[in-house]
Write a structure and sequence with these properties.
Helices cover 62% and strands 5% of the residues. By secondary structure, the protein is mainly alpha-helical.
Length: 175
């Protein structure tokens, strides 16, 4: 295979990685959503940003141009695996260290602010208590309204059955 064309709007992911690892250049179209930029992110991180298109026309042009450039294709077939191996994409130790450092930072911030993050019941927070009381009142009103509506609909259904016909039921008006 000379060239792989990354699908869009959602690129290949694992398939794209496999192609690059096998030395097959991948032409991708960078989109506007996180998922549609995976292929572009991968190519930029291995140093192959020249394979990233930003419009459909550029995607087609890039693929056609690369297909006609035997010298560049040969260089990519020979060098892509090494580019991938030396990139941040394949740096498991570096990635692990970065994730570990991020966890340490989160923990440090938590420790600095843990007193404020404790249960709201441990603090005098009238805003929270007011909103809690308001929420309880709203749910009580909704339950009462649903009960009243159900009772009204029940009565209307019984009336329709007794008359032997079908009545057009409209929701009861709230009290």
């Amino acid at each position: 295979m000379d060239i792989a064309l990354d699908p869009f709007p959602y690129p290949g992911g694992g398939t794209t990685c496999d192609a690059l690892y096998m030395g097959v250049p991948v032409v991708t179209l960078s989109g506007e959503t996180l998922g549609s930029r995976f292929g572009a992110s991968l190519l930029v991180n291995i140093g192959a940003e020249a394979l990233v298109a930003h419009t459909e026309e550029e995607y087609i042009s890039l693929a056609v141009s690369l297909a006609g450039d035997r010298q560049t294709l040969d260089a990519l077939h020979t060098g892509l695996r090494g580019m991938l191996a030396q990139s941040p994409v394949m740096d498991a130790a570096g990635y692990g260290a970065a994730v570990g450092a991020a966890y340490e930072q989160v923990w440090s911030i938590y420790e600095q602010h843990s007193e404020q993050l404790k249960s709201i019941d441990d603090h005098d927070d009238s805003i929270y208590k007011d909103s809690k009381a308001l929420r309880e009142r709203l749910f009580a009103l909704l339950r009462a309204e649903r009960y009243a509506a159900a009772q009204g609909a029940r009565g209307e259904c019984h009336g329709a059955r007794r008359s032997g016909g079908y009545a057009a039921l409209s929701p009861p008006t709230p009290p």
